[in-house]
Amino acid sequence: QGKQKKARKYAVMKRMISLRDQRINEKDRAKAPVKKKEDPSAIKEREVPQHPSCLFFQYNTQLGPPYHILVDTNFINFSIKAKLDLVQSMMDCLYAKCIPCITDCVMGEIEKLGQKYRVALRIAKDPRFERLPCTHKGTYADDCLVQRVTQHKCYIVATVDKELKRRIRKIPGVPIMYISRHRYNIERMPDDYGAPRF
């Protein structure tokens, strides 16, 4: 005659006694949170994000030639694949002088990618590129670019990364440059009258 099999019970939690239970000693019991009464005469503090003075509705007054363009890692890679000269194609797109800018984070990202992206690294080290030093901790390039354009509205962001585009679209007054049909295009670039050009 074999042993009777017991059905195993799954996801059974140990029953814990509540800290407010009457059976616990008074000194060990959890105290009920005391609500503070609001003083009606006290000054209420409210933090409202300060809107930048450079924005006149949708028109960003800080944007003007020569345009400073923040370049992302994948933008350089896609430019190589599309056989586009970075600086010349930017000038063809905007009809003005363009200064491509590259942050330390983006540079570090390209260097980490290794031998496969040596052409992109050589382009990034071009003397026509302006190098922007990063003072923050961590080297995640997308966060670095978003933080920089939030603080300074004088940049156009050049990227083909969908996630980064989605994040930058939420920041008012920051145009996005992208690649489509083997040429550079600009998104949300205001014209001279302040109406956004699409």
Describe the structure.
This protein is α/β, with parallel strands linked by helices and 198 residues long. It is 27% helix and 18% strand. It has a six-stranded mixed beta sheet with strand order 5-4-3-6-7-8, with helices on both faces. A two-stranded antiparallel ribbon has the order 1-2. A two-stranded antiparallel ribbon has the order 9-10. A hairpin with a 5-residue loop joins strand 9 and strand 10. The N and C termini lie far apart (83 Å). It is found in: Nucleus, Nucleolus. Belongs to the UTP23/FCF1 family. FCF1 subfamily. Its main location: nucleus. Part of the small subunit (SSU) processome, composed of more than 70 proteins and the RNA chaperone small nucleolar RNA (snoRNA) U3.
How would you summarize the topology of this molecule?
Blueprint (H helix, E strand, L loop, with lengths): L54 E2 L2 E2 L6 E5 L1 H9 L4 H9 L3 E6 H9 L5 H7 L5 E3 L8 H11 L3 E4 L3 H8 L6 E5 L2 E5 L1 E2 L5 E2 L1
Parallel strand pairs: 3-4, 3-6, 4-5, 6-7
Antiparallel strand pairs: 1-2, 7-8, 9-10
Helix pairs in contact: 1-4
Protein name: rRNA-processing protein FCF1 homolog
Organism: Nyctibius bracteatus (Rufous potoo)
InterPro entries: Fcf1/UTP23, Fcf1_PIN, PIN-like_dom_sf, PIN_dom
